[in-house]
Amino acid sequence: MSSTDIAEMLEKSKELDRLRKEQEKVLLEINTMHNKLQSTPEVVEKPGDNSLSKLKMLYTQAKELSESEMSISNQLLGQLDAIIPAGGAGQQRRRIEGNEQKKKRMKGDSDIPRLSPSMRNQQEFFASLKGEQVAARVAQEDGEKDEWVIVKVTHYDKETKEFEVVDEEPGEDEEGGAQRKYKLPWLHIIPFPKISDLATTQEFPPGKQVLAVYPGTTALYKATVVQARKRKTDDYTLEFDDDEEDGSLPQRLVPFNQVVALPDGHRQ
């Protein structure tokens, strides 16, 4: 074994150590997100909070780090195979290979419980929305605008990750005024803040753009916060886009539990 080989293996070992530390940091962040999801799911899951996107990014990062660790481990194993002589050392090589396979199996097994609790809690949170009213983006025929309405969750399918919801307002175009039903992905659902969780509900400062229920309707539109939530009434003072009257935008009071963060890329 040359000094170059040894130096190269030491460098790879250092890289493995770095990857392990990076994985620990990422897993710590995942666990932190998991705890937030457990304690205040209605706040964490708001699109404006971007928690789900961040969680997805962390899972992707953990997967990439794991794959990099596997790649370097295989490189080191290949170097050892090339260096260890055949014959008497065969048993030693088989032991190394066997241990490596065992580590791989252990790693594959341990990845599941490490990452799955957050996913399980996410699934449980979605399932817990059954019977709740939520904001939902329903399809537009022309696909040019986002239509957000209040719907009631009737079921969450953990396999397809889709919500079954019903628009409790009778549809004008529906025969006999029947309620419209939809199957929607979780990205098209925004839970409303709960009155019981007033203290932990996300605050929207003046100037912030939000999505809010227009007074007297079951539809949500883009609006701008004029006055922050008043403590006595817990209402926001909002100006809705395209709500012009006599050349100005009227200011309307909307309860805090009918105001949510504006989704990224909202089209109106």
Please write out the topology.
Layout: H1 3-39, H2 41-44, H3 51-83, H4 90-128, E1 133-138, E2 147-157, E3 162-170, E4 179-185, E5 189-191, E6 209-213, E7 219-227, E8 235-240, E9 252-255, E10 259-261
Antiparallel strand pairs: 1-2, 1-5, 2-3, 2-7, 3-4, 6-7, 6-10, 7-8, 8-9
Question: What this model shows, in words?
Answer:
The structure is a single chain. It is built from 4 helices and 10 strands. The protein is α+β, with helices and mostly antiparallel strands. The chain has 3 domains: 3-74; 130-191, SH3 type barrels (Roll), CATH 2.30.30; 208-261, SH3 type barrels, CATH 2.30.30. Strands 1, 2, 3, 4, 5, 6, 7, 8, 9 and 10 form a 10-stranded antiparallel beta sheet that branches. Helix 1 (3-39) packs antiparallel against helix 3 (51-83), helix 1 (3-39) packs parallel to helix 4 and helix 3 runs antiparallel to helix 4 (90-128).
